[in-house]
Amino acid sequence: MTKSLVKDIKSLPDGSMAVLGSFPDIVVFSSSNNVIWYHSAGNNDYSSNDKSHFRINGTGSYIGFTPTNEPAYSFDVSQGKLLEEKSLYPAPVNVNAGTTILDLENDDRSINGKKILFSGRYESFNTTDISNNGKQIVFGTGWNLYLADNNAEMKWQTPVPCAVWARQY
After folding, report:
1. Could you give the C-alpha distances from 98 to 8, 76, 101, 110, 135, in angstroms and in order?
2. Order of strands, edge to edge, in the sheet holding 55-56?
3. pTM above 0.70?
């Protein structure tokens, strides 16, 4: 568990201990501190300035992604199938169908010249994408995922467990 932070420890009836790590991994130690069992789950790295690795169809039922230094994957939500193939859907954009997103990296961020006012204090916008018809825009930040219309009005927001890092600049 050298790459991991300890997230939880449970004592077991036989005197051994199970330790859950953040890598994610799990190990069971005997009472004499010998490893009885260890398993490490794969961990994907999505921290990239290239946002072309994340692709989604118009209904959200088909998602394509590529972990850093790994093969591309596609997930068909409706069928619950993970495929090792690159998605053919278009990558995110910040100009589309008459809608333009400007200055995400500073406080003058805007949609079609209208200042974006719905973000939290000190919240950084990391990525954006515009729908095919230009009427809806999704934003990823360090704390939230937002949907706005092309008049810079927020439609909904939801917290995210970690920062959304794909960037367009």
Report:
1. 50, 30, 10, 14, 9
2. 55-56, 62-65, 73-76, 81-83
3. no
